[in-house]
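Tokens as discussed.
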């Protein structure tokens, strides 16, 4: 049932839109999860949504973002699936 699917492809900044960034937009994402009763969140691809200050090659930097996502999942009760596309 596609009526139960929601797509967050832009963050509303009031004066325009931009793609969502993690972890910056997690509060807005949590609000959307609560408002819509969302039970499953898919982030595809995870690297495409990291903000410019996150070094995806740094274990600690990536761990910090994943921890923030984990905490958001715990607060909302939603399951989160993060996909990463590996090079061939």
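Sequence:
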């Amino acid at each position: 049932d596609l009526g139960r699917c929601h797509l967050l492809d832009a963050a509303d900044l009031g004066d325009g839109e931009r793609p969502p960034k993690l972890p910056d937009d997690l509060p807005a994402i949590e609000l959307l999860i609560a408002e819509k009763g969302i039970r499953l969140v898919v982030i595809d691809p995870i690297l495409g949504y990291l903000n410019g200050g996150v070094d995806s090659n740094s274990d600690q930097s990536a761990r910090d973002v994943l921890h923030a996502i984990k905490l958001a999942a715990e607060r909302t009760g939603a399951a989160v699936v993060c996909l990463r596309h590996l090079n061939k």
